[in-house]
């Protein structure tokens, strides 16, 4: 039985199928020591390599579908590598054999909160795609408060440099003095969208925390810099949200859950213990 090459590569968490097609066109993928081309199909007899490095497990063996949630601290980049050597969200994740973690969307350097990861590039792409319309909910602290006119404008839509945007909902979430907390939701994941929307009505953001992605919430017990695997029930709900089937769901019981604690030496090196002491009070999500 053969499969499309880009599907096999995406399944191993190397990226979406579209990204894998770009890699193939760029000559980064080889089949049996020859450059791969768009349209190639592979079987269990083929040897695959990327950038000259062979895949460590046979490409026709489907790895167990994994989904993690991670409590991202401010100060970590949502990228795989940084030329300046700054900490990234991938530094703390458990190692995978024959595949790698793919982030479901991004959070900017100064944004905290929920970030999902999976080892299936196609699933990551489905969860990020605009047609999925998965709601993203953020707790945001601003200097000042939103007037009725500002709320109406943000719900109706404002023009940003990359097109119109709006919040699906805005809820007050407390605060003291001049700092006010709100819960806001979006149906897309454009770059710095929450900050840019609030800037459009002349409000600045002093703290931003994602507390939900689609049906998945950030639990109170998950501390900054820690990760955990989704429960079977949560994973099923998430997959149902994008009509995704997991043919190996019954095989998951053969693998024990990963320890959610990060590598302590990395935690000291990145200085993230200070993040655990940041701020008191704040949103009901317990992340402040």
From TrEMBL:
Any one GO cellular component localisation term in the record: cytosol
InterPro entries associated with the record: PsdUridine_s_RsuA/RluB/E/F_cat (IPR042092), PsdUridine_synth_cat_dom_sf (IPR020103), PsdUridine_synth_RsuA/RluA (IPR006145), PsdUridine_synth_RsuA/RluB/E/F (IPR000748), PsdUridine_synth_RsuA/RluB_CS (IPR018496), RsuA_PseudoU_synthase (IPR050343), S4_RNA-bd (IPR002942), S4_RNA-bd_sf (IPR036986)
Signal peptide: none
One Pfam family named in its UniProt record: S4
Disordered: annotated span: 247-288
Biological source species: Acidithiobacillus caldus (strain ATCC 51756 / DSM 8584 / KU)
GO BP, sorted A to Z: enzyme-directed rRNA pseudouridine synthesis
E.C. no: 5.4.99.-
Keywords from the named record: Isomerase, Lyase, RNA-binding, rRNA processing
The protein's name in its UniProt record: Pseudouridine synthase
Amino acid composition bias (Gly residues), ranges on this chain: 279-288
Role summary: Responsible for synthesis of pseudouridine from uracil-2605 in 23S ribosomal RNA.
Catalytic activity: uridine(2605) in 23S rRNA = pseudouridine(2605) in 23S rRNA
Family: Belongs to the pseudouridine synthase RsuA family.
Highest taxon of source: Bacteria
Keyword Isomerase (UniProt): yes
GO molecular function, one term: 23S rRNA pseudouridine(2605) synthase activity
Domain RNA-binding S4 intervals: 3-66
């Amino acid at each position: 039985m053969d499969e499309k090459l880009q599907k096999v590569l995406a399944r191993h968490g190397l990226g979406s199928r579209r990204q894998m097609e770009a890699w193939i066109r760029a000559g980064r993928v080889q089949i049996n020591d020859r450059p791969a081309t768009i349209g190639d199909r592979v079987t269990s007899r083929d040897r695959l390599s990327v950038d000259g490095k062979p895949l460590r497990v046979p490409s026709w063996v489907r790895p167990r579908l994994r989904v993690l949630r991670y409590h991202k601290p401010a100060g970590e980049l949502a990228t795989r590598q940084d030329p300046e050597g700054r900490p990234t969200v991938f530094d703390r994740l458990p190692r995978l054999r024959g595949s790698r973690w793919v982030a479901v969307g991004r959070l900017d350097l100064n944004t905290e909160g929920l970030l999902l990861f999976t080892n299936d590039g196609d699933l990551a792409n489905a969860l990020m795609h605009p047609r999925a319309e998965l709601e993203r909910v953020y707790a945001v602290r601003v200097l000042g408060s939103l007037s009725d006119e500002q709320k109406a404008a943000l719900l109706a839509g404002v023009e940003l440099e990359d097109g119109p945007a709006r919040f699906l909902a805005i809820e007050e979430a407390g605060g003291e003095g001049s700092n006010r907390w709100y819960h806001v939701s979006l149906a897309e994941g454009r770059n710095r969208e929450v900050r840019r929307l609030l800037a459009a009505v002349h409000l600045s953001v002093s703290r931003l925390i994602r507390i939900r992605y689609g049906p998945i919430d950030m639990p109170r017990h998950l501390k900054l810099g820690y990760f955990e695997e989704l429960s079977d029930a949560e994973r099923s709900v998430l997959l149902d949200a994008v009509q995704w089937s997991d043919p190996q769901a019954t095989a998951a019981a053969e693998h024990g859950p990963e320890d959610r604690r990060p590598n302590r030496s990395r935690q000291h090196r990145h200085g993230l213990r200070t993040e655990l002491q940041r701020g008191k009070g704040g949103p009901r999500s317990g992340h402040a």
